[in-house]
């Protein structure tokens, strides 16, 4: 059920130079949940976010860990996960990207009662898809996620994937003050109308990373998760050619990312395969250069001195087995348009909000002229209602000056086009990153009944109105 997500440098150096491909591709051990379920505690804790030599930071955490324990599930195997709330406020857990029953979706009021302090809730579902997912609160989500409540979920394929190592990097962004504590000021209205709460410290699996050990000749599957509140990332792997093999947990046609940069919005996951062809003993930087003039080093790939474990990359294919996603019938699909509006503009004014910008309402954003603020509540009226089993094409128009990772609960969507150009490589996503003025078409089969959130996963934007509900009846 749990993994440290890391391999120590000593362990790596001890690996034999004559490692055989057959041995390297042995399957991961099965970790199916026991019927009694896995209990995870949401609790205050301390974490070394800034790394060795720095004071620990007060956080909120799952099982006292940042990130929370890695949850490993098996595709098609029933899971039971019990969340116990030891915080002094209500919480829930959203199992982001997993196509599960609506009562298990974790939206307070809309799909379940919130978990009160001292109480617990059992989430029961059978994951239909293998891939990389994550879990986080959907109650007071801006602060609870911003104080550390997040963890990764890996749903393992039925058959092992041909790689030497399967690694997870859960990247997160924090705003720390001079004392190393999480800075106050969640819900700043000016930030909410712009790019959101972007921090000043980025961690990899819970701490600032100086190096990640590698071995020449190995093939690595690297699962990237952006658990930030607002930071968009564009990762470059110096001296390497990563191949994208899955987006948001769903396999795609293997391809190198455009311009060599892996664009990762908040809540997105991208799996890459890398044949480690660097020189033994060398170090190669991993850089995030999304924001102009603000690039920084995420970590370094630190190669051991050992000779390569093989002379050439393995012949095993990079493609992953497809998940059982229903294929939308584009010829018979119903079509709708949703327009993202609002936010602070270059001249300092607001736009597209129909007069809803008074400070009392707290709304800075809208979808089709309507704002839903907060995390979800009882009685939220759907913007659209679909008949169960119907194919749907949604045209999302971003009329704002800001980036928005738009997340649809309960479904994965096939991304058809961006600004009129077809999107290649058959990419299915539950979180679609939209640039300013973008228009994106997505398609899906509305096969999962219930009321489902569609919202921006820059959490300030969601809390300030960039959220709606889609109903499958």
UniProtKB/TrEMBL annotation:
InterPro entries: Cu-oxidase-like_N, Cu-oxidase_2nd, Cu-oxidase_C, Cu-oxidase_fam, Cu_oxidase_CS, Cu_oxidase_Cu_BS, Cupredoxin, TAT_signal. SUPFAM superfamilies: Cupredoxins. The keyword Acetylation does not apply. It holds the Pfam family Cu-oxidase. Keywords: Metal-binding, Oxidoreductase, Plasmid. PROSITE patterns: MULTICOPPER_OXIDASE1, MULTICOPPER_OXIDASE2, TAT. One of its GO terms (molecular function) is copper ion binding. Signal peptide: none annotated. Residues 53-157, 168-284, 380-472 form the Plastocyanin-like domain. This is Multicopper oxidase family protein. It comes from Xanthobacter dioxanivorans.
